[in-house]
Design a protein that fits this description.
Layout (H helix, E strand, L loop, with lengths): L2 H25 L3 H39 L1
Helix pairs in contact: 1-2
């Protein structure tokens, strides 16, 4: 699996999770759900953005290395 396809899969999975969370949150809104959101889901969004940026950078390096080896 290539980095770009892994990146896309990560973004889609995160988007799906957050959409499902929104649906769940309509029916589950108590201190526990708020803690789950603040401690895990909100930081997850930033972590996925950072991971995708790192994957882009790694893909550039790998592409450069591959070109250099040809």
């Amino acid at each position: 699996m290539s980095l770009p396809s892994t990146r896309t899969k990560l973004q889609k999975s995160t988007r799906d999770l957050l959409l499902r969370w929104e649906t769940s949150h309509e029916h589950w809104n108590d201190p526990v759900s708020q803690r789950l959101e603040s401690e895990y889901l909100n930081p997850l969004e930033r972590a996925v953005i950072n991971a995708c940026e790192a994957m882009d950078a790694m893909n550039e390096v790998l592409s450069r290395v591959q070109r250099d080896c040809e």
